[in-house]
Design brief:
The chain is mainly α. About 75% of the residues lie in helices and about 0% in strands. The protein has 22 helices and no strands. Helix 16 (about 365-385) packs antiparallel against helix 17 (about 390-405). The radius of gyration is 28 Å and the shape is globular.
């Protein structure tokens, strides 16, 4: 495989196809968990708040563990991580088929399946970015659409399988289907770049301070200027081993001095390398904390952090409890061909595409576009308690699904807020708290029902959370203040410079 033929094409399209299927298989069932949610309520008779932890963790654990997942991909590569994620998703669903309690399902389906999905997401996104440069946006859009298509198909498929084979049979079949993630992962070979040939072998001896291999006679030798040389500690270690070696040779008349010299050199090299690695890791931790604190000095980033947390707390539960809401209204969904959760899935695909196209329009500001979707989502959620028919709920589900497509423009918003240089760091923090919101939202909504025996207060609470997040983000850089800013002296401007930039664009 050559580098030039596969970047932005070639085998890269096979990576896109495989990654699409991984998202389809890994996220299809967790996103349409609302179908299973009602079955688990009937099977175990537990409260809605406790049972909702299953679906919330299945979708939130992967985001919460995103830093760990990223480290796994960087360490082991996309192929083994994807294969292992398939084993986790398959094994979690297999164990869930034999679950005897909700607590067991929280572990098997919520944590194990959720962690597998998170690993799959990190691996597929990483390798897709490696294979695409100019067409990266298109490639990532196609890959992430797999989860929405999976939600649409799995919602109807799981419902049909439950009718035919029961809940246990459905989970067993879903487990077998998810094992195809392993097959998809096998095609994810690493991109080979010209810089790989010969270079890595040349770095093997970069920590050896002597020009003569197999000896520790480092007198009159200069240490290399590679960050590990020119260090008194290194010289002391080298001289220490040299003295010990000479003493051993004189005492035991050791005939294989060259082998011992080589051993001493390797020991010196690795000992010093471990010490330097520990120092570098500690410096990296301090740098991480410093960058994180610096990010939160940006008022828009802080508002974005609060907005994404409140958005996931308020909006995500609608996917899980919508089926149970319809049942509480005595709506017979069996008489309708498309489940409500499936409507959310297909319209979220459309939302990702349309909002992604709008974000690329020159005169469109992605921050305001994202803020509008939050406010509209909050208003839609507060309207759900007034819908008492299948048609009304279907329309609201369509709107909710379309607005959930704002995930496609979230990276654009983050980039505009912190810049390209800090994008990876900032996006990881935001995804972590998005996972926290996903994990907390459904149980909170379920507890509202347990207290009030109705979903009305739950949806009012969810809508209020999303609206609050939207208005916080709007007030962090309001466009209607642009004219007022011109009349205020620059010395009196006490808010983030990014707000001035955004306001001047409108």
């Amino acid at each position: 495989m050559t580098y030039s033929k596969n970047i932005d094409g070639g085998w890269g399209w096979m990576i896109v196809a495989a990654s699409f299927m991984v998202h389809f298989l890994a996220y299809g069932s967790p996103l349409s968990v609302g179908v299973l949610y009602t079955e688990w309520l009937d099977a175990f008779g537990e409260g809605k708040g406790l049972t909702a932890w299953i679906g919330s963790l299945a979708n939130g654990v992967g985001l919460i563990a995103s830093p760990i997942c990223s480290v796994c991909v960087s360490t082991f590569g996309a192929r083994p991580v994807t294969v292992f994620s398939g084993v986790l998703v398959c094994g979690g669903m297999l164990l869930s088929a034999f679950a005897s309690s909700v607590q067991f399902l929280i572990l098997s389906y919520g944590i194990i399946v959720g962690l597998g999905a998170g690993l799959a997401y990190s691996a597929t996104v990483t390798i897709t970015c490696q294979y695409f440069d100019k067409r990266r946006g298109l490639a990532l859009g196609l890959v992430t659409t797999g989860s929405s298509v999976g939600l649409f198909i799995y919602a109807s498929l799981q419902k049909k399988l439950i009718e035919i084979y029961g809940l246990e049979g459905c989970l067993l079949i879903m487990s077998a289907i998810s094992l195809h993630i392993v097959a998809c992962g096998t095609v994810m070979r690493t991109v080979e770049t010209p810089s790989h040939t010969g270079k890595e072998m040349a770095t093997t001896d970069q920590y050896i301070p002597c020009s003569k291999k197999g000896t520790v006679n480092c007198e009159n030798e200069e240490l290399p200027e590679n960050g590990y040389g020119q260090d008194k500690v290194f010289v002391e270690h080298t001289n220490h081993f040299k003295d010990k070696h000479n003493a051993v040779v004189n005492k035991l008349d050791f005939q294989h001095s060259e082998e011992f010299d080589a051993f001493a050199t390797r020991t010196t090299k690795y000992t010093y390398f471990v010490k330097q690695t520990a120092k570098n890791n500690w410096a990296a931790c301090l740098n991480f904390i410093e960058i994180s604190l610096d990010l939160f000095k940006n008022k828009v980033f802080t508002a974005l952090f609060l907005a994404i947390l409140l958005f996931d707390v308020g909006s995500f539960p609608s996917q899980i409890v919508m089926e149970d809401l319809a049942r509480s209204y005595n709506i017979d969904e069996d008489s309708h061909s498309i489940p409500l959760v499936a409507i959310v899935g297909i319209t979220s695909s459309m939302g990702k595409f349309v909002l992604g196209v709008l974000a690329d329009v020159k005169w469109m500001n992605s921050l305001y576009l994202y803020t509008v979707t939050l406010i509209m989502m909050g208003a839609t959620l507060t309207a759900v308690p007034f819908a008492t028919s299948y048609v009304a709920l279907a329309v609201l589900c369509g709107i909710i699904g379309f607005l959930l497509g704002n995930w496609s423009i979230f990276p654009y918003v983050t980039t505009k807020t912190v810049g390209v240089e800090k994008l990876t760091h900032a996006y990881g923090i935001l995804m972590f708290f998005a996972g926290v919101g996903n994990a907390l939202g459904p149980p909170v909504i379920g507890w509202f029902f347990d207290w009030t025996q109705t979903y009305h207060a739950a949806f009012y609470f969810g809508g209020a959370c999303v609206l609050l997040g939207g208005f916080i983000l709007l007030l962090s850089s309001p466009p209607f203040w642009s004219k007022m800013l011109k009349t205020i002296p620059k010395s009196e401007l006490a808010f983030n410079s990014y707000a001035v930039k955004i306001s001047s664009e409108t």
